[in-house]
Amino acid sequence: FEQGVRSSLDLRLAEASLAGAKANVAERITAANRATRQLEVLLGRIPSNKLVIPEELPSMPAAVPAGVPAKLLARRPDLVAAEHRLNAAGANVSQAKASLYPQISLTASTGTSTSDLSNLVSGDSLIWTVGANLIQPVFQGRRLRQNVNMQRANFKAAESGFRSAVLNALSEVENALDAEAHLAVMDESLGEAHKQSQAAAQIALERYDRGLENIITLLEARRRAIDAESRWWSVRRLRLDNRINLQLAIGGGFEPIKKHGI
Q1: Which residue of 14, 55, 87, 200 has the lowest C-beta tally within 10 Å?
Q2: CB atoms within 10 A of CB 234
């Protein structure tokens, strides 16, 4: 422009593009600083934006191995909790059913009959008055049976909750595996788009320097190159996020947890 080779339009367009780029950089820096402070809070540190963040993303994870056993889902905390609730509900049913019967022994230690049963129905026995814990089930049978029914209903609810938790876990795994395949295709395609757009931007610059192309074409080529690179890095980050979600869905890594060194 100063040498009179280019018009003021080229200069204005280039300066406008530069100013827009600076604004975008400032916006990204603000977002990055906010994310850094949030990460510091999660780590229990003072949010001072001093946490050192690597400049590059981690390398892409290896492919998901074939034949991952479904039993790995048993490591998920929500499934462990649901299973415990189911077991507790089953124990409550057994306890409620046991309370229907008097707490006496029908046989002695030798396997023969005991006097407990005869004492229970003996008219001159004080057990009718002082042994309430033995005869209480007889006179409160309706309430106790209602309790059994209630505990059975609770068991059914716990069973349904466990089933729902398992189905939800399977859904999360399937969604993550499906996304894994599609994100890999996107990664490869956007990587190629980034490569080609960078080459196009270089050609546009060379042609502009020789006076064979206008500034608008050059700026558009550069914009497309930057956009392609940004989308490529975004999908690579999504692949890492999705792998984290997948391992959360299966409760850890792809290998079963070994106990006692076995």
Answers
A1: 55
A2: 12
- Residue 160 resides in a domain: yes
Q: Same structural domain for residues 39 and 71?
A: no
Q: The pTM is what?
A: 0.66
Q: What is the mean pLDDT of each run of 10 residues along the chain (262 residues)?
A: 60 86 91 92 90 83 78 86 85 68 46 46 42 51 72 83 87 90 93 95 92 87 92 93 90 67 42
Please report whether residue 116 resides in a domain: no
- Please check whether residues 85 and 182 belong to one and the same domain: yes
Q: What are phi and psi of 136, to 5 degrees?
A: -55, -45
Cβ–Cβ < 8 Å for 190, 232: yes
**C-alpha to C-alpha distance for 250 and 165, rounded to whole angstroms:** 13
User: Closest by alpha carbon to 23, among 13, 12, 15?
Assistant: 15
- Residue span of the structural domain in which 34 resides: 1-53
Task: Tally the domains of the chain.
Answer: 2
176 burial (CB, 10 Å; 0-12 / 13-18 / 19+) is: buried
Q: Of 77, 236, 252, 240, give the one whose Cα is nearest residue 173.
A: 252
